[in-house]
Amino acid sequence: MKWLKNACVGFWRACVLAVVTMPVPAVWAAAMALWLWWGGNPWSAIAPLVWACIGTFALSRPVCRMIRALVASWTGTVITAGYRQAVPVTRMSTGYWWNGFSYERSSRDAVRDQRMRLWFRDPATWRDLRFVLIAPVTIGVAAAVPPAAVALAFVNPVFLLGLVSAPYAWRVAEPVAVRFLRASPAMVVGELTAQRADTTIAQAAEIRRIERDLHDGAQARLVGLGLSLATAEKLMETDPEGAKALLREARAGAATSLSELRDLVRGISPPVLTERGLVDAVRALALDSPLATVVSAEVRPLLDPPIESAVYFGIAELLTNAVKHAHASTARISISRNDSGLAVEVEDDGRGGAVLRADGGLAGLRRRLAVFDGTCEITSPAGGPTRAVLVVPCESW
């Protein structure tokens, strides 16, 4: 029974892989058919060839993302993509928009130019293109054996070949994907360099946010508190009741200012993180989360405060997204150590489909970790689950 179950699962996975790896050959077959339909002369091949190349480029990245997601879901092997991430476009004092490459007149033009430049300058684009040309003759051929044998079920030996090969036909996907889809050291260095270049902008924005919160909140209340106390001092002899009322208002304002300052400090560095460390802070965060969250920690790392803060707020961002966007009900957080350093895995049972946008929270999380040479790999197929792995190189334990 166990073998039969494995055969059924293997057959289904082989069918999925056969479908995923065949869009590019299908595009070229359609181009060839169109060329033959037009007469087969050399000049009529130009348009089908152009459309076949465009289709190959357009399909390369989605196919590679699906292969990574399937391998991660079926085997647990996370293959680092190494794609260069877009940085937020910034409006300069001149009125033009800077996208990391050039100045444009509008934010839409800046985003469009940035996408095109990232697409063609990213080495991962050409790696994906190579993979979609290799995958059909490696993964696709092996995965097509079980469904082809079932289709030819009237030939008994072939049918038996399909049953025997079903549990194993899909397994070729993992070594091929790891060999040809993982990020090269040059890609990783390029991605980290691009993220570090954006760190200054992110830090400046964070400083401006803190300044704005202080100016609009606590500072304004403290200024009002000083004026109330000065007025109460003048009214102390002539209008004691009025002075007492102002003092009561000043006391309430002081309490509100203190609460706002505590909230601001908590947003910068939660007290539990400073006092108890990363593991206890994450457990406290899990208790406050509306999700049913399980935290497992194989180690209790003694990290530098900036690293602890980056990892803590990264976990907080992932839990927030699980509640707000994925509509998850449960989550699992695992803190461990691997060959690269600290590894944190966050998985939820939400609907998946997480998208990394240049101005989104996930991009901010990647930038926060990039300061410490950290990485964040997210696997989020449609329908879930979403699985994020944060890795930060460190030697403090």
List the uncertain runs.
none
Please compute the radius of gyration using only Cα atoms: 28 Å
Mean pLDDT: 77
Helix content: 55-70%
User: What fraction strand?
Assistant: 5-15%
Oligomeric grouping of the chains? single chain
Largest sheet: number of strands, sense, barrel closure: 5 strands, mixed
Q: How do the strands line up in the largest sheet? A: 4-5-6-8-7
Output the structural class.
alpha+beta
Query: In whole angstroms, how far apart are the ends?
Result: 46 Å
Count the beta strands.
8
Overall form: elongated
Question: Helix and strand string, N-terminal first?
Answer: HHHEEEHHHHHHHHEHEEHEE
Helix tally?
A: 13
Describe this structure in words.
The structure is a single chain. This protein has 13 helices and 8 strands. With 397 residues, it is of the alpha+beta class. Strands 4-5-6-8-7 form a 5-stranded mixed beta sheet, sandwiched between helices. It has a 3-stranded antiparallel beta sheet with strand order 1-2-3. A hairpin with a 5-residue loop joins strand 1 and strand 2. Helix 3 packs across helix 7, helix 11 runs parallel beside helix 12 and helix 12 packs antiparallel against helix 13. The longest helix is centred in the middle third of the chain and has 54 residues. The chain is elongated, with a radius of gyration of 28 Å. 30% of the residues are buried.
